[in-house]
Amino acid sequence: MTVTIVGVLLAGCTGDAADAGPTGQAAPTGRILQGGAPGEANTTLTAFPEMPDLVVEEDLDFLRGMLLHHAQALEMTALVPERGASEEVALFAERMQLSQEGEIELMQDWLRERGEPVFDLGSPGGHAHGDGEPMPGILTDAQMAELRAAEGEEFDTLFLQYMYMHHEGALVMVDELFTAEAGQDSWVFNIAKEVDSDQRIEMDRMLAMLAERGAQPFTIGG
Q: pTM for the whole thing?
């Protein structure tokens, strides 16, 4: 059996100028022609086999969980305009809201394209892992009520303290994903790293704003 590479020579026979390379020769097609046995037709093979699906259940759990985690962050930023927040905190919250809305859209679209269910982010009682345990950094009902009741400078400080803790929880979720040796799919890996990077940048900013107010952040288990 013979295997013949068909690239420049095969494409060059077509005389199609649209496929020509910078020297006027046709670009390789990336195919190989496998000669058949006597009396049998040749077979055209692709040079690069399709990559296997690396997505595992932990990846799906991570994305669904992060959607719900981001949803509570948006609940928190939605309070900013009505609680008399300072211009500094209002601008920070607006930028954070846009960032997390973008990540939510990306994750929802990816899940839908794979035929996976997408949760209703407005449904009550949704801030838990699949095993029913609260996700790290998620505010309790009492903590959310405390935030809703605060105003002005008190709201600014409490918002930053709770949002810092909330972001810390997202970092824990990313760490859990990779500790489970999941996130091998390139898209899942990239979105997890993007979440991690965004949260860390925003946490540094919150630390600085809290320091200006003589306050410390709340932390998980703290």
A: 0.75
